[in-house]
Structures are given as C-alpha cells and as structure tokens.
Design brief:
mainly alpha; 80% helix; 0% strand; flagellar rotation; cell membrane
Length: 293
C-alpha cells in the first residue's frame, strides 16, 4: 500500500510541477521514447538474468503489494511452535519430534501454525537444523557455523532479484540518453522543416533523457531499496530460528530457548516477554487439554 502511495506521490509531484510551470503534460509521453527505453531495459534484464531469477523477480514484485509477512504475529506463532517442539523433546526425548521435522507439511504440530508453515524455505531450514540436533553428533558451535553458512547462501540467492533491479536502475539514465540521441538523429533529418516542427522533435528527444532518469530514481531505484529491506526482514527471521535451535542444542529449557530467540527479533516486531509468556502458557494449556481428552 505504501509503495503505491509513494509512486502516486512521485508521479503527481513531477506532473504537477511541470503543469504549474506551464508545461503541457501530453508532450511528455511519446510512444517511440517509451518503447525504446522500456523495451531496451526489459531486453537487458532478459539477457543478464537466468530464468529462475526472472520468475523469482516477478514473485518478489507482486509480494511488495502486500504487507510485510515477517510481523509480530508471525514471530508469536513461531515462538509457540518452537516452544511446543522443545517441550515435546524435553518431555519425551528428541526422538519424539522426529516425525514432525521429517514431514512438517503433514505434521499435526506444524499444521497448527499455518502462518509459519507458509514460509516453506524457513521451515526446511528449521527442520534440517533440528535434525542435526536430533542426531547429536554435531557440537553446538559447529551447528552454529553450519546455520550461518546456510543463512549466508540463502541471503545471496535472495539478493539476486535486488541486484537485477539495481542494475536496471544504473542503466536507465544511459538508455534514456540513447533514446534522446535517436530522437536528435530523427530531428536532423527534418532540419530544413518549419521551426515549430523541429522544436517538437527536439522536445520529444529530450523526453527520452527525462524518462530514463525519472524511471531510475523515481521508480526502479526505490523499489529495489524496498525489496532489499524486505529481504533483510526475511534474513532476520532465519537468525531468529537459528538462535532458538542453538539454544536447544545447548540443552536450554524450552522457555529459555524461546526467550533467546525473542531477543534476536528486531524491536519493531519483537513480542514483549509478557506476550511470549502468555503464548507459551496457551500452548501448555492446549497440550494438557489434548492429553486429557
């Protein structure tokens, strides 16, 4: 929503300022310049980007139209899931959670938290890490290093779409100049024509530079920045899961493991200790009721 509002503000400010200065807005839009700039930009993306990254880019751009999913509600659900997993492991042994982490999509425990299960790659990261804890042959510090390497690789892969948009942003002003030069070439072929006609052609050529710079710094640049920040919030979620698993690997109690994970959450989406405690107590109550039934 805020992205759309921002884009509307950019467009309104540019067109409004131009109109206030006495400009005629329709003269800014020439199909030939738009086709040249947008088509060339799209072509450079296709040339330089693997198909799987193009697919991911489309998905990422669509996700920007929705609120950031890595919010307080997700972290509370994740804390409840982690607390229930660790409580089960503490009560019945690590082997008791093996079935849950082997097939999380079919696990009754994971299915209680669809908000968490929706983040497929994060769930796989959690389950793979817990599987190492279950094996018991990996020291906590080695597990920590392995998870760091996994997070770094995931971050590198996720940043590919941001890099694509950043490269487009860097190239758009130059592509705008190309469009402007082509417009000047066309103008020179009519140099013997009426002054008004030549002026119209020169203005059309200059809109190429205008559109290239505007699209770069008013559209693709800010969108790339926003996408990068979304990727950072996703990376922070992986760090949250890592903190919980590392604590569990050191035989911390379920509540301490949950608290250490909570401390790894950014302050703007971090549940309070009271909220976490209430969530964990609700898990205990639901488990007790299920056993009684």
């Amino acid at each position: 929503m805020f992205m759309i509002i921002g884009l509307v503000v950019v467009i309104g400010s540019v067109l409004g300022g131009f109109s206030i200065a006495g400009g005629n807005i329709p003269v800014l839009f020439h199909v030939s310049e738009i086709v040249c700039i947008c088509g060339t930009s799209l072509g450079t993306v296709i040339i330089s980007t693997p198909p799987h990254t193009l697919k991911a880019l489309n998905k990422d751009l669509m996700s920007l139209l929705k609120p950031d999913p890595f919010n307080k509600a997700l972290y509370l659900d994740s804390l409840k899931l982690l607390f229930e997993l660790f409580t089960t492991a503490q009560r019945d042994g690590m082997v008791a959670i093996e079935g849950h982490i082997e097939n999380p999509d079919e696990s009754a425990l994971f299915l209680k938290y669809p908000n968490v299960l929706h983040h497929h790659h994060a769930v796989i990261f959690l389950c793979d890490s817990l599987r190492l804890v279950l094996m018991g042959s990996v020291a906590p510090h080695d597990l920590d290093m392995m998870m760091d390497a996994d997070i770094e690789l995931h971050h590198h892969e996720e940043e590919e779409t941001v890099t694509v948009l950043t490269n487009v942003t860097d190239g758009l002003p130059g592509i705008g100049i190309v469009a402007a030069v082509l417009g000047i070439i066309v103008t020179m072929s009519y140099i013997s024509g009426p002054v008004e006609y030549i002026g119209h052609k020169v203005a059309a050529a200059l809109t190429g530079t205008f559109l290239g710079v505007l699209l770069a710094y008013g559209f693709t640049g800010p969108i790339a920045t926003l996408l990068g920040k979304r990727k950072a919030t996703e990376g922070a979620y992986y760090g949250f899961l890592k903190a919980a698993v590392t604590a569990a690997a050191k035989d911390s109690t379920p509540m301490i493991s949950a608290e250490l994970a909570r401390r790894a959450v950014a302050s703007n989406v971090r549940p309070s200790f009271g909220e976490m405690e209430e969530a964990c107590q609700s898990v205990k109550k639901s488990v007790a009721e299920a056993k009684a039934a």
